[in-house]
Give the backbone structure.
Amino acid sequence: MIRRTACLSKLVRSYKVGSSSSLITKQLDHRCFVSASASSGEQACQAYVYSEFGRNEYADVDWDNLGFGLVPTDYMYIMKGSSNGIFEQGQLNRYGNIELNPAAGVLNYGQGLYEGMKAFRKENGNLLLFRPDQNAMRMKIGSERMCMPSPSLDQFIDAVKQTAQANKCWVPPPGKGSLYIRPLLIGSGPILGLAPSPEYTFLVYASPVRNYFKEGSAPLSIYVEEEYDRASRGGAGGVKSITNYAPVLKALLRAKSQGFSDVLYLDSVNRKNLEEVSSCNIFIVKGNVISTPATAGTILSGITRRSIIEIARDLGYQVEERAIPVDELSEADEVFCTGTAVGVAPVGNITYKDKRMEYRTGAQTVCPQLYSTIIGIQTGRIEDKKGWILEID
């Protein structure tokens, strides 16, 4: 059971006192609330200086039973932009509903993108963000495809940092999960004819999460979908458009009703090559060779995918990015999935044309080796030698 409570973020600031060069560190409790006399959207904010040890560190959450569902936190970040690409200064707002014109481009024509990333808590209480610059760059690429302006890299990262800091008490204790952070870019301005929106909203919200799949860390059971496609050549499958996800629900719900964890899609032209799972990339292992479908416009270039490829090569594996015929599933020793939400998840079996194929899982396989490495870097237990981590206090 999760009970939402007021949780006030603690931001550390340093002040010089008099002419002394010594610094006195104090913590500011930033409490934002809607004033009774304020108009819609206006906020009154006050800052309180308080003792470093005078506040609760965590929200009132049953961390041991945390899943992957929305847990409303305290703050979200909102920034407005125009069609000329200029974004105004954003700000933190209390988490809550937003107002949209019924003719908003995102509602009528699906003009929107989203990203997914996580903040982990170190033992010393600091927060770690994993490769946020890559999310910012991917949003920029996606926005060009969707005819949208995008925040700059600095604006994107600053918004994510502010959201993480403001919701720090919602970041689970070390080993209990992470704070899932979702940046959104939507066409919020009204448009009746088919055209780009005249106004855009960049929004970042967050929720504490743990395992994405109900199986937890247990091996997944995957069904190969032959009727429906996830993406097609020339479409938007290679970017994180919001329009890519609702169409997979029919196949996903059908597979789950039959006891499967998720759906693996094939290419839309010949239905012979592996593409990706509904919400993650896929890898197959044969001996010392790890293969994953090449991202050629229909497959999302996952940041976890890219990181796992680099880690695997560092560990001595041969990694191939290529077209993978579905028939190779019957020859694989091991299969696993990667993604921000799912992490690195082992696949126990895949069903294709009523044939169930079983794969190796367990401590001596490749998947846990790769998972322990990337989660070690993400949580600060393994030294980050690649410059992937952004640490914030």
